[in-house]
Structure prediction request, 93 residues.
Amino acid sequence: MDVARVGIAYALRFRMPLERPADFGSANGSNFNVGSVDPQGELRDLLLALHPDLHEDPYRVFETLMSVGVIALDDRVAVGEIRTLRDLLATTG
Prediction:
């Protein structure tokens, strides 16, 4: 759950596209329960504040962002750009 939230935060921070990549398949809401990922609705509110023109279900968008964010982080860790939490917090994209 924490890794999923970090993936969402990373994707939002670096303004990754909200649209689901074609090779991801359909968003079916099977990653996590909404109540587990965003029990108070704060992530939803943040997403809508950052993207007021969003016409998709925010939680479907989160399903995409958690995946693309974690994949991007994994790529950066694999090449040694991020090795510590300090590296992650100081990262510029």
